[in-house]
Design brief:
Layout: E1 5-8, E2 28-30, E3 33-35, E4 41-43, H1 48-57, E5 61-67, H2 70-80, E6 86-90, H3 95-108, E7 118-122, H4 128-135, E8 139-142, H5 151-156
Parallel strand pairs: 1-5, 1-7, 5-6, 7-8
Antiparallel strand pairs: 2-3, 3-4
Helix pairs in contact: 3-4
Bound molecules: magnesium ion.
């Protein structure tokens, strides 16, 4: 399988916090740890940076699909200096809608991607059935169950 895009969930997939929409300013980042105004901590998981870089180097389009307030998502990504080509941050939990939006945005950027060319990584497998039903054969991987380390993502896409 040739993958052309990798789309990530955020909370508990990229970092250990379960809901970054709760974070308040001022937020500060030191290395892979973000601390917000009330002392809430967000730890980026190991090898996230290296994995995203390796995928990007191979020409894989990087997407984010997260149930969070968009301004906060963008702020956290900015502070961590994480870059995604397409960010879908919506205040509803429907990942299949976010993935449709991702495919549409890619198309508008001139990249037509078929569902089977998308790798989707999420710590919650309950989204996967809806994704398969509405979009088709997206390759969905349950983070921390099917794989336990970011380096395994590179094996899946053969990078
Ligand atoms: Mg999650």
């Amino acid at each position: 399988m040739e993958f052309r895009a990798a789309v990530f969930d955020a909370d508990r997939t990229l970092w250990d916090h379960y809901n970054i929409s709760e974070l308040v300013e001022p937020m500060k980042v030191s290395g892979d740890v973000l601390v917000d105004g009330t002392g809430n901590k967000v730890n980026l998981y190991p090898r996230v940076r290296e994995t995203l870089s390796a995928l990007r180097e191979k020409g894989i389009i990087l997407g984010l699909a997260t149930w969070n307030v968009e301004s906060i998502t963008k702020r956290v990504l900015e502070l961590f200096r994480l870059k995604f080509d397409i960010i879908i941050s919506r205040e509803y939990p429907y990942k299949f809608l976010m993935l449709s939006e991702f495919l549409l945005k890619a198309k508008r950027m001139g990249v037509e991607i078929r569902p089977e060319e998308v790798l989707y990584i999420d710590d919650r497998r309950d989204h996967f059935g809806y994704i398969w039903f509405h979009l088709g054969k997206v390759k969905c991987v349950e983070m921390w169950k099917e794989i336990n380390d970011y380096s395994e993502i590179l094996k899946i896409v053969n990078v």
